[in-house]
Amino acid sequence: MYTARKSVARSATAIKSIKSVADVKNTEKTTTYIRLSDASDHYRDKHIDDKKGWAETLASTLERTSHTKAAARVRDCANVLFFGLHCDEKTGELKHKLRSAPFCHNRHCPLCNWRRAMKNKATILSAMPALLNEYKTARFIFLTLTVKNCELSELRRNLHDMNKGWQRLIKRKDWPALGWIRTTEITRGKDGTAHPHFHCLLMVKSSYFKSGQYIKTTEWVKKWREALRLSYEPVCHVCSIKSKDGTKDALASAVAEVVKYATTTEDMTKGGAAWLEEYINQVYKLRFIASGGVLKSILKDVRKGEDEDLVHVDESGEENGEEQDTIVYSWNKKVIRKNGKAGAYVRPRC
Ligand SMILES: [Zn+2]
């Protein structure tokens, strides 16, 4: 590991003069490093540089808040990645598979949240075949429930009210779902206000789509307004997840949308340190993912929290043949990515 770090440091020195993507292309053959995004064809390894880049952005803003310990942890999140190389039995190609990495596990870290989202998606999708075997005619709808923007200082109270409203909504006689998964997302308005909303995946009987039972958007607005006891009409959006051939992909996309994140790093940081400090205080210890009905137990592993494994987040869980070797990639802030941004995971070129 130390040898690899020294080599990477030497690589960094060698590329000090690199200024642009074109320069990278021109010097690729002569550089002494190999980028993970070039060496691995897995989509996760193509995106991890960007997530680590956002973690750097978050750490920089956190450093200007009172959360300096968290800033240090996020800054150091996954500075090195240990991969196993597996020989694909079909093609003979060597494939990367993450074996370990020192993830920081901070709830706001974009790198850890990205891994969490993948893991949650995999957990939910892996439970679906058994559920759909039991509830053969079940279908899914994707429901978004919003309220008006509020001052950031009022966010916690608003989220509390939304949770109470949700409890009233699911206790209504006309609540259509057999089971549900609900996440909370907060976006930042241009004026610095907060826009909290719920993303909900509802599992319904197929009869829901028959006339008389289907709930149109305007009816959801009425129900959500009543449940929240609002004086205005809140914005709601509902769409069905197509069945037949598209079920698997459409469901996977909907699950990915539900579990993606609470707040983007861009939104968390563009208001500066003061906004971030207040945001962290407002959402302190609030749980942003919940499930109920026949989907209640689907997130039991997610709720364990402390034991979360952010390394093994594979959707398939399949191993590609026998492990051949271990290889270490280190984060280097000076290497330029293909998108022109600074920072990439690299290993020394042998
Ligand atoms: Zn992290």
Question: Level of helix content?
Answer: 40-55%
Give the amount of beta strand, in percent.
Answer: 15-25%
Q: What string gives the helices and strands in order? A: HHEHHHEEHEHEEHEHHHEHEE
How many domains, in number, for the residues? Answer: 2
Small-molecule components bound: zinc ion
| Cα distance spanning the termini | 14 Å
Cα-atom Rg, whole angstroms? 23 Å
Shape: globular
Q: Main β-sheet, in a few words?
A: 5 strands, antiparallel
List its traits.
globular, 5-stranded antiparallel sheet, Alpha-Beta Plaits, binds zinc ion, 2 domains, 23% strand, 350 residues
Strand-helix topology:
Elements: H1 2-14, H2 21-27, E1 33-35, H3 36-39, H4 43-62, H5 68-76, E2 80-87, E3 94-100, H6 110-134, E4 139-146, H7 155-170, E5 177-188, E6 194-204, H8 217-228, E7 236-241, H9 247-259, H10 265-270, H11 272-282, E8 289-293, H12 300-304, E9 323-336, E10 342-348
Antiparallel strand pairs: 1-10, 2-3, 2-9, 4-6, 4-7, 5-6, 5-8, 9-10
Bound molecules: zinc ion.
Residues 55, 74, 77, 103-104, 106, 109, 111-112 line the site of zinc ion.
Descriptive account of the structure:
This protein folds into 2 domains: 2-104 and 323-348, no CATH class; 110-304, Alpha-Beta Plaits (2-Layer Sandwich), CATH 3.30.70. Helix content is 40%, strand content 23%. The protein has helices spanning 2-14, 21-27, 36-39, 43-62, 68-76, 110-134, 155-170, 217-228, 247-259, 265-270, 272-282, 300-304; strands at residues 33-35, 80-87, 94-100, 139-146, 177-188, 194-204, 236-241, 289-293, 323-336, 342-348. The chain has a 5-stranded antiparallel sheet with strand order 1-10-9-2-3. The chain has a 5-stranded antiparallel sheet with strand order 7-4-6-5-8, sandwiched between helices. A hairpin with a 5-residue loop joins strand 5 and strand 6. It is globular, with a radius of gyration of 23 Å. Bound molecules: zinc ion. Zinc ion binds next to helix 6.
